[in-house]
Amino acid sequence: MLEARAMKSQIAEFFANQTVFLTGGGGFLGKVLIEKLLRECSDVSKIYMLMRQKKGKTPQQRVSEVFDFPCFDYIKANNAAIIKKVHVIHGDCQKPDLGLDPEDVRVLKAETTCVIHAAASVRFDQSLKEASYNVRATRDILELAKQMANLKCFIFVSTAYSNPLNAHVKEDFYEPPIEAEKLLNVVNSLDDSVLQRVTPQLLGEWPNTYVYTKSISESLIRSIDTFPIAIIRPGIILSSAKEPMPGWIDNFYGPVGIATGAGVGVLKTFHAKRDAVAAMVPVDYVVNALLSIMWRIGTEKTKTPTVYNFAGHKTNKITWGQFTDNLRELYWIAIPKCLFWYVSFVLRENQISYKLTTFFSHTLFGYIIDFVLFCLGKRTLAVKGYARLHKTLDLIAWFSTRTWDFDDNNILKLWSEMGEEDKKIFDFNMEKLNWDAYLRDSAFGMRYFLLKESLETVPEAKRKLRIMFVAHYAIIILFWFLMYKLMTFMYGLFV
Ligand SMILES: NC(=O)c1ccc[n+]([C@@H]2O[C@H](COP(=O)([O-])OP(=O)(O)OC[C@H]3O[C@@H](n4cnc5c(N)ncnc54)[C@H](OP(=O)(O)O)[C@@H]3O)[C@@H](O)[C@H]2O)c1
């Protein structure tokens, strides 16, 4: 239960009377960030939230909808008026100079004291052109920040995988695969079809355009020496551990999509190494680390850019094998009611056995479903759906079959410098995270927030799972019995 605190923390004091300019505020991380700022740093002066027009909705409408998410329930029940501190700035990272109105530029330059740049297109399968906007937006927001008269700190949200070709990732800058301006020139000068053809040569060993452009964006931060600036590199961001409530989640990215697909019985396998570390981090811990970094660099006033890896604690890691084992147990506790078939989910280490499992458990199954749909006169969708799913799993496999060793000295030092009150309010201590309890809350969160199933439906879902368990194994036994009969019949024909 969240409680109001009487004592102010150093971090809350730092944010008092500050004006924050935030990009990506409507995203998963952004929502938790705004909620935390409004709740624990309630003396913040204003939050300017960049929002673009999308799907026929104005930025203002979209920002109002952000506050309909359950992660704002506590704020709305206890201090709804504080939401007025959030002001919409109409802008789009895909447009030159963020598509900002000149009057908004003037206001931002005059008033902003803290910048959080978290907006990014996070898809792994986007074209280089789309992904290049991540670089251009970072360049343009840095140019804007240089003209902010009262800027105290700037933080850029990158990813732990921005240097994926190094197994050991230091909290330092690495050479980008290409200079930012060169990339932007290439993208601007080539027509789309040519750019698509040369993309594999440009990427080389890089696994996707997302991490490629994150690396190039980081290199832009390196040259800043006029205001305090830092990069936070989170690992895979999953549901909240504690705040605004345990298990809060609003997307199906990566492992969440895998866990949900497996939980409803549609996904049967994924490709990973059992011993590879899954660098997962709860979203509220990322937010707490991010705000603490801003406090640190803003009060120290250092003009040398600092990098903070935030991808778990060296003594409290979870592997993809442990993650899978945990899920299998959790399905008996928090199984969704919209169960499609019995949950049988295996991790495949070997590429060939993974492909065989996807063929028999997904594609073949998809053909059966589509055949039934076809006979019922309905639109077939299963085979196409599985093909799309396999593409996504292949993109994830590049990361789930490897392990990285992330340095974490800067983040540990920051933790050691924080006061006791701040350690309680802005907890990001991954060493103490109880993975079993966390994944359990995440499973219930997935059920509740993503699949919109209340807790009362758990007993019914468990009954359904037991019935499907019997049906599943009955079909397998029947299948092998028929195979045996067929073999003995064939044997009889030839002997
Ligand atoms: N999720 C992870 O596992 C993970 C891990 C490491 C780092 N990160 C980083 O954390 C940050 C936040 O990610 P997230 O997980 O919160 O993803 P998300 O839910 O997809 O949020 C991305 C945000 O960026 C905004 N955005 C994208 N393109 C934009 C544009 N052209 N103009 C304006 N805003 C735009 C989105 O707004 P719209 O609603 O308008 O699209 C959204 O608010 C990103 O920088 C990401 O790279 C994420």
Automatic annotation (TrEMBL):
S-adenosyl-L-methionine is among the record's keywords: no
CDD domains: FAR-N_SDR_e, FAR_C
Fatty acyl-CoA reductase C-terminal domain mapped to chain residues: 362-453
EC number(s) from the headed UniProt entry: 1.2.1.84
Keyword RNA-binding recorded: no
Group of enzyme by EC: oxidoreductase
Topology within the bilayer: Multi-pass membrane protein
Biological role: Catalyzes the reduction of fatty acyl-CoA to fatty alcohols.
Protein name, as recorded: Fatty acyl-CoA reductase
Source organism per UniProt: Tribolium castaneum (Red flour beetle)
Lineage of the species this protein comes from: Eukaryota, Metazoa, Ecdysozoa, Arthropoda, Hexapoda
Gene: AUGUSTUS-3.0.2_10578
